[in-house]
């Protein structure tokens, strides 16, 4: 379904409602480097609970202000730049969602995967532009360092939408919109669950995400601010990056257990690090629930960890950006207003709903 011309208010509503579009299985025409088709498993990851936009309004952008010209999305070529190698379920589900929606709309999609190398992501996007991408959807690895890409896109008046992480640039000038979660709020909600699990007392550790992006910064700030506000007897005694990776999360937790064997709780800024922490605790002979663990993402393995008693809560960060990203591009390229910050709603998993809602996880 594609929206018809409408007023600005109705456009914003349509963008919000677009998240309810059903995703089709399959992959669009692509030119992956190092990636290849996600196949049937990837198509399944594209399904599940679709994104919904939070209520509220903020600054908007229209194509005239951006300096580009109206085009028909159906006849356009869209370039998608994935930031990380697809060992992480979040990235698998994210890419599958983008491909499935492009396929549903019959849009030519060019894709590239930076394999967690920022210099490669910059060259990837430059290559997508050279191959004729009319529009870009970027999942940034880092928030800084995008000037070369932004200049190349601006020279050709190519609209850019970023998903799941922000870039440090000016919306409606350097890029059109950011679509993603409120990461500070995610951190606060994770802190609430940690306070609940620990009774607000003890010593806790933070497995930080990868440095250099707004997700890590904001999830950390939200968590620590809420702990300071609501649980002054809960002390953060250890902070170290696990780089959003399971193996690294396990290694850091093994170090943590040696230096702080009586640690009360662990806040992992994504599920993969949290699952690494579980592996480390098992290796140290700990029992399920002996160390309280709260994570962010909503992968099936992490939600299963709640069912099994190893994880106390998971704050969702929904990776299924396909419908909302293409609906935003569709509205924008028709001259309609779109939000500069399109914030999605995130649910959560606890012992109360983890088993029943396991099928909604990715």
Task: Briefly characterize the structure.
The chain is an alpha/beta fold and 362 residues long.
Structural class: alpha/beta
Low-pLDDT stretches: 1-46
Distance between the termini: 25 Å
Query: How is the main sheet built?
Result: 6 strands, parallel
Spatial extent as radius of gyration: 20 Å
Mean pLDDT: 89
Q: What can you see in these coordinates?
A:
With 362 residues, the protein is α/β, with parallel strands linked by helices. It is built from 12 helices and 14 strands. The strands form 3 sheets. Strands 3-2-4-5-6-13 form a 6-stranded parallel beta sheet, sandwiched between helices. The protein has a 6-stranded mixed beta sheet with strand order 8-7-9-10-11-14, with helices on both faces. It is elongated and about 60 Å long. Mean pLDDT is 89; it is low at 1-46.
